[in-house]
Amino acid sequence: MLRQPLTAITGMLAALLLLALSGHAFAQSASEAEAFVQREAQEVINALQAFRDGELDEATLRRNFRDRVDQLADVPRITGFVLGRFRRGADEAELEEFRTVFREFAINVYERELGNYAGQTLDVTGSVTRAPGDFIVRSTVRARGNGEDVAVNWRVMSGDNGLRVVDAEVMGVWLAQTQREEITSIIGNAGGDISAATRALRQRTR
């Protein structure tokens, strides 16, 4: 079975990963990637604050994020990564079923954590350029009151559809990489059967 999210913040990060928030096409500088994370991640946090304040109802909030996934997420790319070597030669019908369930799994993780992030502030603190159009953006999520701040790294890449968050790290754990390890382990133990991972994810979304 897949492990539970390490902390509440990981729910937000998994969701942000699948949302693959869009930005300006073909960013050429780290400063653009930093501005992208600052703007888009804080927008999500602000929406959660509006939900907490009663300005946005839960059904509308959930619907809005599902719409963003439908419009903006590069689900085939994310699916291909988490499936690893099992993606090659896989039946397209199996892939489509996995893709659909994987999307619901990520959204449900996020929905279970609704309300845990309201009032927090994200501050971008710097970045590293891995390659042209490939950046690691560093940030800190500032907690309210006696809560502890959380350092978060975001891997941001640019391409045909603009800037995308393709992975995020919290407390030393890269989410997509962790999901890949868990999902490929399930498939490997099932003799290469992708539907085994689909069933495991479906159980988690009930």
Q: Explain this structure to me?
A:
- A 5-stranded antiparallel β-sheet has the order 1-2-3-4-5.
- The longest helix is centred in the first third of the chain and has 23 residues, at 30-52.
- A hairpin with a 2-residue loop joins strand 3 and strand 4.
- With 206 residues, it is of the alpha+beta class.
- It has helices at residues 8-19, 30-52, 58-72, 75-83, 92-112, 175-189, 194-204; strands spanning 121-131, 134-142, 150-159, 162-170, 173-174.
- The radius of gyration is 17 Å and the shape is globular.
Helix-strand sequence: HHHHHEEEEEHH
Could you tell me how far the N terminus lies from the C terminus, measured between alpha carbons in angstroms? Answer: 14 Å
User: Structural class per helix/strand content?
Assistant: alpha+beta
Shape: globular
Q: pLDDT below 50 for ≥5 consecutive residues: which ranges?
A: 20-25
Strand content: 15-25%
Indicate the mean pLDDT: 80
Helix content: 40-55%
Q: How many helix segments?
A: 7
Question: Rg, please?
Answer: 17 Å
Strand order, sheet with most strands:
1-2-3-4-5
Q: How many strands in all?
A: 5
> What's the main sheet like?
5 strands, antiparallel
